[in-house]
Write a structure and sequence with these properties.
three-stranded mixed β-sheet; L-arginine/glycine Amidinotransferase, Chain A; 15 strands; alpha/beta; single chain
């Protein structure tokens, strides 16, 4: 169960954010409305939310999940593989230190973005992508072992982040899309495949028994509800234009 979350307001420069989505530039005003509703959804799930000011110098900085990782034991500051995002780490460190004064750190040549990390109990799956390399994953596995936790690397192709194509909903249920549905690393889970038209909903997020689901994907919503989960839709159209998902907009711990 989670009790806290950290989020950062979108900045006007988000229109220059990294993307491969080909959905056009995000509308800043609509993005702010959607982000406000996202914060409300976190609070409805019982979380106390720390909302940080926007960072205009960093267009992608609203996706705070990538620059830090909270485990059940402590915190780890990442080293993003995206050069334009590496400067965000010192800003998230300021608030992380309020909860965990001595976080561990991923160092170069290791690259790690937490959008590539999925936690299942005390185990962390680490996707190897253009943003997370083997050196960064190895560093993380070492740091996790010091905390009595474990990690393993997941080979994948063509994904900006691991959690763009899967999300763990607890109770052994795993939403998947594409290669992740047949990936050998997840054969022991009850895999629920999202259709091609609703692949974005594979990045839904479980919080304290409720699943936040991106708005506009009725098949995914119905499937999640049929599994017995409470659900809450959150509009994400402007963040989808930046390859961003529900999980990426907050750090939950």
């Amino acid at each position: 169960m989670f009790s806290h979350a950290i989020a950062r307001k979108p900045c006007r420069s988000m229109v220059k954010g990294i993307t491969s989505a080909k959905r056009g530039k995000p509308n800043f005003e609509i993005a702010c409305e959607q982000h406000d509703d996202y914060i409300l959804a976190l609070q409805e799930c019982g979380l106390s939310v720390t909302v940080l000011d926007a960072l205009e110098a960093f267009p992608d900085s609203c996706f705070v999940e990538d620059v830090a990782l909270f485990t059940p034991i402590g915190a780890i500051l990442t080293h993003p593989g995206t050069p334009s995002r590496q400067g965000e780490v010192k800003f998230i460190a300021e608030v992380v230190n309020q909860f965990y004064p001595y976080p561990d750190i991923i160092d170069a040549p290791g690259h790690l973005e937490a959008g590539d990390i999925m936690m299942v109990g005390g185990h962390f799956y680490i996707g190897l992508s253009g943003r997370t390399n083997r050196q960064g994953a190895q560093q993380l596995i070492h740091l996790l072992a010091k905390q009595g936790l474990s990690g393993s690397m997941v080979n994948m192709s063509g994904l900006p982040h691991l959690k763009r194509s899967l999300s763990y909903l607890e109770n052994n249920n795993l939403l998947t899309f594409g290669e992740m549905h047949h990936h050998a690393d997840f054969s022991d889970y009850n895999r629920i495949e999202m259709s091609a038209n609703e692949r974005y909903a594979a990045s839904s997020v479980w919080i304290n028994g409720t699943v936040l689901v991106p708005k506009g994907f009725p098949e995914a919503l119905a499937t999640i509800q049929s599994l017995g989960y409470a659900s809450r839709e959150v509009a994400m159209s402007e963040f989808q234009k930046l390859d961003g998902g529900l999980s990426g907009l907050s750090l939950r711990f």
